[in-house]
Amino acid sequence: MVTGSRDGSAEEMRLRDEILEAGYWMLREERIESSIGASDLQVFVDSTGDSIESAFERMASDGLFEEVADGYDLTDRGEYEAKRRFVDSFGDLEESHNHVECGPDCWCHDLDSDEACYTEQL
Fold first, then answer.
1. 73 pairs with which residues across the strands?
2. pLDDT tens, position by position, 62-99
3. Which domains does the chain possess?
4. How many CB atoms lie within 10 A of CB 27?
5. Distance between CA atoms of 82 and 74, rounded to whole angstroms?
């Protein structure tokens, strides 16, 4: 039996994923904005402004976003999570327009490494 709380959890997870994906695209992939808020995402996310704002507050308390002067920005942890979701959802569509790059600490920068970087497979 599915209870209301389980439906709410699934809805919260869906909203969280959509905000992370759209946020990554706007803030890091295309650099459209330096910070985002609920009104910036209403076009992309299937939810009300109040629900998006509540989700931002929860994600900020979880360490995925940080509150800045004009809205929210991804934390390092948030960027990692958002990038992973973005690539999972849109990586195949972005093959000819791939800005996803590994970080400076990636193992592929080791000259002794024989394996290709995972970003080359995106």
1. 66
2. 999 999 999 999 999 999 999 988 887 766 554 544 44
3. 4-90 (1.10.10.10), 96-122 (no CATH)
4. 23
5. 8
